[in-house]
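Practice problem: predict the structure.
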Amino acid sequence: METNLTAQQSDYARFLPALSTFYALFVGRQRRGLIDNDPYVPLNRVPSGLKHGVESINWLAPEGLWQYKWSLHSAGHASLDLQKDMFREDMYRDRNRETSWLLGDSGGFQIGKGKWEGDWRAGSGCPQAHKKRDGVLKWMDAFMDYGMVLDIPTWIAREKHSAAVTKITSYQESVDGTKHNNEYFINNRNGNCKFLNVLQGENFSQADDWYDQVKEFCDPKVYPDAHFNGWAMGGQNMCDVHLSLRRVVTLMHDGLLEKGKHDVMHFLGTSKLEWAMVLTAIQRGVRKQHNENFTVTFDCASPFLCTANGQQYTGYRLDNDTKWSYVMEDAPDDKAWNANTTPYDDFCDAMYDNWMPSPITNLLKLNDITIYSPTDVNRMGVSTATSWDSFAYALMMNHNVYTHIRSVQEANRAYDNGDYPTMLVDDRFDRTEVKDVIARIFEIDDRDKQLQMIDDHSRLWMRVIGTRGYTGKKSVNASTQFNNLFSEV
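Answer:
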C-alpha cells in the first residue's frame, strides 16, 4: 500500500485537499494537550496501530501514516488574529515549510455569502471590510506559500442577501472591489507569500472583461517588485475547458505566464475526476512549449463533506470508455457494533463490491469507528443517532482524503496507459481525444491559430462537463439569459 503519495505524483496536475478546521484541530489540540498532560483525544481512544498517536493523521508531517506535500486552507475558516495562540491551527501554522506546501484561499466566498459583513465597494473606507482585508493579507504572508488575492465574486450582485450585506450591486462593482483589494495586497505584501490573481466572470464576455481589467497586477512592467505570481481560475474560467484554454493561450502571449514569475495556476473547487486529466494535459502542454515550471493545482472539499454525511470512499471507477468517478457509499454506522472488533478492512471488504483500503483503515477495528453503544452519550451528555464520536469522523476523513488523492493519481496513470473516460473522447466520426488536441494547441506558436483551433473544437469541449454541470457552448450566454428569465428561490 502506497504511503508516500508525494512520490507518486509524477507530472500530474496537483490535487489539493481543502483542509477543514475540524480536522486540523485534532492535530493541534492533541499536541497542546500532550504538553499540558491533558490530551484532547484520550490516549485509550487512539487506535493502537497509530504509532505517533493523533499526529499519525497529519499527512503534512513525516509522522503521518501516509504523506502528501500539498494542501489548501481557507482564510474564511481560520483565525486571522496572529497574536492569539491558535494551537488548534498548528497543523498548518507550525509545519515544516521545506517539506510541505500550502495554498491559501482568500475567503471571497465568505464575502459572497454575507459571512464577512461590510461595505466591500472600492473606496468605501469601511472599517469592517478593511479589517478582514488586512487580516487575510497578514495571515497569508505568515502561513501560506501561495495565496489567492481577496476577490469579490461576480454572482454576489444577483443574490439579494449577498448584495444587501456587501453593498455590491453590479458586475462592475465586483471588479472594482477586487481591484481595490489587489492594490492593497500589492502595496502591503511582505514577500513571504506568493499571490495568485483571481479571475472571475459568469460567461465568456465577463471573463474576458475581468481579465482585461486585472491583468496588470501580474505584469512585471507595471509592478516590477510586487506583481502577483500566478493565476486562480474562478467563475466560468474553472468549469469550462473552452474558456480555460483560451485564457491560458492569451496569458502566454501576453507575457503573463513566465518562468519564475507566474508558475502556478489554480482551479477553484474542481471535483469531477475527468478534469484531473484535462488539467494535466494543460500543464504538460505549457511546460513543454513555454514554461517548464508551470504547475496546475485544483482543490475540492469532497472527502471532508462526504464524511460529514456519514459516507466513505470505497474506491473508484476507471473502466475504459465509461464515466470515471470516485465511489462514495454509506459507511458502517450502528451502535450494535460498538463491541465488534472485526478488522475494519475485512468488514468493509465483505460489505462493498470493491473496497479500497487505506493505511489508516488497515489499522482499525470496526469499533474504532462505531464507538458508541446504545446507552452511551457524547461529551455534551447527549445520546446521538450515530455510533461515531468526533474522533471517528477525523479517522474517516483521513481515509477519504487518502483515497481521493489515490483516485486522482490512478486516473492519470490509466489515461497515460491508454484507457480513457467517455467524456474525453469523441469517436462519433474520426476519433478525437481531448489530450491530443490540447497537446497540438500548445505546439503552435501563433496566438490567432491557437485560438482558432480551440474554437474549431468547440463540440469536443462541450463533452467535458464542468464542475457546475455546464458545458462549453451552454455557458457562453447562459447566466445572462437565465437571470433575465428566472429568479432563484
